[in-house]
């Protein structure tokens, strides 16, 4: 491989020069993704871009654009239910198979992506069946995630896409069978997301006419750049979505500001019969030159626009994206986003450092982090239990006085103020240094019989807790919906009594009653025989729970519909 040798050549370009110059031609790089484009191109050349590699990239751009033009003229496209102005971007299933799973029925066929929709044609014996259309431009919640697939419903191979919208009754799964990995799937999920994101951008900023066409054109150019980068190294970048402008802006910190700047730039697009699609415009306010480049002109120049759309490319004028000697609003937004991204990456690196393997290690860390809450709960329980009579009595009467004087509304705002004061005191006294590092006792290494028994006992306890929760909820369900009148009458009387009490008594008396009840509950257990609690438990135990039947989803839907009828 000659790439390491080429990286040492003198005629190599660095990051700053590439980011400054390359976005002036949208086909080479985009202002948003120029940094990621450079990193992808120089992944094997020590962050230097030699001319030989750049020349290879330019040649790959020309080949990919020509390939997209050839695909756009395929005869089968005329049979697809495409709308006016819809452009073909990518097709798969001609040589390698593509399998669509809807429910439990898989179908092999041909997958086509346009700048508006996704089409799948099931292959028949002689020809393809009628295409299924999935509208990517509609204002739906498009859920597009990688998925595992395998024979007989198993989840073995990581080479599928799960796609779901509110218009689909169940998600569809598109499988890209390959032995070498999941790069084919990753490429398709990236370009489909880009189309979804560009239409989301168009709807959000209500772009129409030339601005809308220019946004779709930039999405197409981004996909061509991704294809060319992949072609240069015969390898898909590790994160292909970063090379696509609208997908990248959705995920970057401060991406909303970037999208606002792009929208302002595209809304400045206007038709000028004397324009050639590329222009230098002078700002009337400060006289600075703005360099502009139209994706429509580039697509027209490459033969990717129809004759009916050629007038857009020939007359469009866009200003405000790049400045000579200064930064445009888009460039400033991208620069701020890059700075925030570095901070986010540093924070993520610290997160990866503290992630530990093993249940014992994570349990020990969790116990240490929850120690302040555990101590607070223990302190509150000691107060309620009257273990230290003087402290409990002082707190009881003090809080009783606060409630009686209607100062309860001032206590809640005072709690965060007290917390702020405590933090400030820790900083001033220098004691905050010991909290900058979390010290966790190292658990015993290896898995012992005691740890296995403890884990099994913990799982049994969790199962028991879940069973108790289910029983309590079922008993409440029985009280409300029981056919016997005693259960429902009791609930109605209890709710009516509670409403009457809250309506008649001032809130402070209700709060006083709750406060006294909490602090005297432990004393009652010690001083009384607990007949009231015993009768309450006996009544609770006598409540039967309703019958529970486990059914499939379709059967449940049928039963619910029968009750409605």
Q: Mind explaining what this structure looks like?
A:
With 565 residues, the chain is α+β, with helices and mostly antiparallel strands. The protein is built from 20 helices and 15 strands. The strands form 4 sheets. Strands 3, 4, 5, 6, 7, 8, 9 and 10 form an 8-stranded antiparallel β-sheet that branches. The radius of gyration is 33 Å and the shape is extended. The termini are far apart. About 3% of the residues have low confidence.
List the helices and strands and how they pair.
Layout: H1 3-6, E1 12-13, H2 15-21, H3 34-41, E2 49-50, H4 51-72, E3 88-92, E4 98-102, E5 105-114, E6 117-122, E7 132-135, E8 143-149, E9 157-164, E10 172-175, H5 183-205, H6 209-233, H7 245-251, H8 255-267, E11 270-271, E12 278-282, E13 289-293, H9 295-301, H10 310-315, E14 316-317, E15 322-323, H11 329-354, H12 359-369, H13 371-385, H14 389-404, H15 408-429, H16 449-481, H17 485-504, H18 507-527, H19 531-541, H20 553-564
Antiparallel strand pairs: 1-2, 3-5, 4-5, 4-10, 5-6, 6-7, 8-9, 9-10, 11-14, 12-13, 13-15
Helix pairs in contact: 4-6, 5-6, 5-7, 7-8, 8-11, 13-14, 14-18, 16-17
């Amino acid at each position: 491989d000659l790439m390491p040798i080429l990286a040492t050549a003198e005629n190599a370009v660095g990051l700053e020069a590439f980011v400054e110059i390359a976005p002036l031609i949208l086909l080479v790089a985009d202002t948003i993704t120029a940094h990621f484009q450079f990193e992808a191109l120089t992944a094997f050349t020590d962050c230097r871009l030699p001319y030989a590699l750049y020349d290879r990239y330019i040649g790959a751009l020309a080949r990919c654009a020509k390939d997209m033009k050839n695909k756009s003229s395929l005869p089968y496209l005329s049979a697809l239910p495409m709308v006016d102005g819809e452009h073909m971007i990518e097709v798969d299933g001609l040589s390698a198979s593509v399998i669509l799973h809807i429910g439990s029925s898989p179908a092999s066929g041909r997958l086509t992506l346009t700048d508006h929709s996704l089409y799948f044609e099931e292959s028949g014996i002689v020809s393809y069946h009628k295409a299924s259309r999935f509208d990517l431009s509609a204002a739906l919640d498009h859920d597009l995630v990688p998925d595992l697939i395998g024979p007989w419903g198993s989840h073995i191979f990581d080479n599928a896409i799960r796609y779901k919208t509110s218009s689909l009754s169940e998600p569809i799964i598109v499988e890209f069978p390959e032995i070498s990995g999941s790069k084919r799937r990753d490429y398709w999920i990236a370009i489909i997301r880009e189309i979804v994101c560009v239409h989301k951008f168009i709807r959000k900023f209500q772009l129409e006419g030339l601005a809308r066409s220019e946004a779709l054109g930039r999405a197409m150019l981004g996909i061509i750049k991704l294809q060319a980068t992949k072609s240069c190294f015969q390898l898909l970048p590790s994160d292909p979505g970063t090379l696509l402008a609208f997908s990248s802006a959705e995920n970057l910190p401060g991406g909303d500001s970037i999208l606002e700047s792009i929208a302002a730039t595209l809304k400045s697009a206007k038709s000028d019969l004397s324009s050639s699609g590329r222009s230098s415009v002078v700002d009337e306010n400060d006289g600075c030159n703005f360099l502009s480049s139209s994706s429509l002109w580039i697509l027209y120049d490459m033969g990717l626009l129809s004759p009916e759309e050629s007038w857009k490319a020939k007359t469009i004028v866009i200003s405000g994206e790049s400045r000579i000697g200064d930064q445009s609003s888009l460039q400033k937004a991208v620069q701020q986003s890059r700075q925030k991204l570095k901070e986010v990456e540093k924070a993520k690196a610290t997160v990866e450092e503290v992630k530990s393997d093993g249940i014992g290690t994570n349990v020990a860390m969790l116990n240490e982090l929850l120690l302040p809450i555990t101590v607070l709960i223990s302190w509150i329980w000691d107060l309620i239990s009257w273990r230290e009579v003087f402290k409990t009595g002082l707190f009881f009467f003090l809080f009783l006085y606060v409630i009686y004087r209607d100062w309860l509304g001032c206590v809640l705002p005072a709690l965060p103020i007290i917390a702020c004061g405590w933090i400030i005191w820790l900083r001033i006294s220098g004691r905050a240094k010991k909290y900058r590092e979390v010290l966790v006792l190292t658990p015993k290494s290896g898995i012992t019989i005691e740890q296995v028994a403890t884990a099994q006992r913990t799982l049994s306890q969790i199962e028991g807790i879940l069973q108790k929760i289910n029983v309590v909820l079922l008993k409440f369900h029985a009280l409300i919906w029981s056919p016997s009148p005693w259960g429902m009458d009791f609930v109605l009387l209890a709710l009516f009594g509670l409403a009457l009490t809250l309506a008649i008594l001032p809130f402070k008396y209700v709060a006083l009653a709750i406060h006294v009840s909490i602090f005297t509950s432990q004393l009652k257990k010690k001083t009384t025989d607990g007949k009231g609690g015993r009768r309450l438990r006996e009544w609770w135990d006598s409540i039967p729970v309703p019958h529970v039947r486990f059914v499939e989803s379709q059967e449940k839907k049928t039963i619910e519909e029968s009750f409605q009828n």
